[in-house]
Amino acid sequence: MSFTPHDERFMAAAIRLSRWHLGRTATNPSVGCLIVKDGVIVGRAVTALGGRPHAETQALSEAGVLARGATAYVTLEPCSHHGKTPPCAEALIAYGVARVVISVTDPDPRVSGRGIARLREASIEVDAGVLEAEGRHSLAAYLTRQTKNRPYVTLKLAVSADGMIGRQGAGQVAITGPEARAQVQALRAETDAILVGIGTAIADDPLLTVRSPGLESQSPIRIVLDPSLALPLTSRLVGTAREVPVIVVTSEEGSLSQAEGDIASTEMESRHAALEAAGVEVVHCNPYHPEVLLPALATRGISSLLVEGGAKTARLFLEAGLVDRIQLYQAPVMIGEGGIESPLDATDIPSGFAHTGTLMFGGDRLDEYERGL
């Protein structure tokens, strides 16, 4: 590798740029690209909303003739296959760039190594692996779906000083302050889907949308694990299903009569029809087997999933070993009698997770833990 002193600086900027459209590029990754000539950025872009055009073609278009002889910094290996758009590797060649610096090689078998090979065949200098750890972090959702055939799963928990995540029968209980809640809204905005169990959906009647001003349109798909189709038609989730998609995951069709609560299949069919009439999508897939559910979500283009509640659902994903990142908020408030015990605290983080950072939001502490990709 022949990295220059400026390579890490420009790649860091490209990685920051790539985060602009996280959760908003459909099945394509959110990639950042800078075109740099004589130490000056002459073109920059991030994968467009919806996934097209790709970052490289936009950045090259902005650079125009200045791209000839320039260096392109790209967070993911340029594509080399003909899909719905021409290959980005060919565009880099056509514009006459002299060098391409890449953070992460693409695990997609249609691309992996081929983009680099095509560039080198055209006598373009290629260096890969610049800030690779940071690049993989920004591309975690895409890389997980490509290599594990499932979404990247983040578990978010807000825990009181006495180890509780809520209070029985109290509905939504504010544990963290406004600064931490605003941070959670930002996390939702860059996530494809958010998931809760039916207990949380009934007890809290949440919206699960993004409510930060200017980010409302970035609300994720909302998913409820609901084996007996108990989600009330009067709930806020159902009431807004035509505005922001709602998926209810219920028991498989062949076992309707064995669903929780022993509800007869005819009643299940009636609830199914009522939910669909309200705009809710009902999916038959055992809700308590995330190892089956997650690949099914991946086939729908969902690359990142935020698990927000409640305790039973958190344990389900933890025990299945299907959590990739834990965001643990610890607040100074006390819940007291009737509290719902957290399935996790800072003293019993599962093995395999590394502590990656601590942030303070007002009086609330956020500790983040991640598994290696």
Characterize this entry briefly:
The protein has 373 residues and is of the alpha/beta class. It has helices at residues 7-18, 55-63, 88-95, 114-121, 132-138, 140-148, 178-189, 198-204, 236-239, 265-277, 290-299, 311-319, and strands spanning 32-37, 40-46, 71-76, 99-104, 125-128, 152-159, 164-167, 193-197, 221-225, 246-250, 281-284, 304-309, 325-330, 339-341, 354-361, 364-370.
For the largest beta-sheet, the strand count, sense and barrel status come to: 9 strands, mixed
Oligomer: single chain
Q: Helicity, in percent? A: 25-40%
- Shape, principal axes of CA atoms: globular
CA-to-CA gap between the ends?
Answer: 23 Å
Topology order in helix (H) and strand (E) letters: HEEHEHEHEHHEEHEHEHEHEHEHEEEE
Count of helix runs: 12
Radius of gyration: 23 Å
- Strand order, main sheet: write it out: 11-10-9-8-12-6-13-16-15
Q: Structural class of the secondary elements?
A: alpha/beta
pLDDT averaged over residues: 93
Q: Report the uncertain regions.
A: 256-261
Describe this structure in words.
- The chain is an alpha/beta fold.
- The protein contains twelve helices and 16 strands.
- It has helices at residues 7-18, 55-63, 88-95, 114-121, 132-138, 140-148, 178-189, 198-204, 236-239, 265-277, 290-299, 311-319; strands at residues 32-37, 40-46, 71-76, 99-104, 125-128, 152-159, 164-167, 193-197, 221-225, 246-250, 281-284, 304-309, 325-330, 339-341, 354-361, 364-370.
- The strands form three sheets. The protein has a nine-stranded mixed beta sheet with strand order 11-10-9-8-12-6-13-16-15, sandwiched between helices.
- Strand 3 (71-76), helix 3 (88-95) and strand 4 form a beta-alpha-beta unit.
- Helix 3 (88-95) packs parallel to helix 4 (114-121).
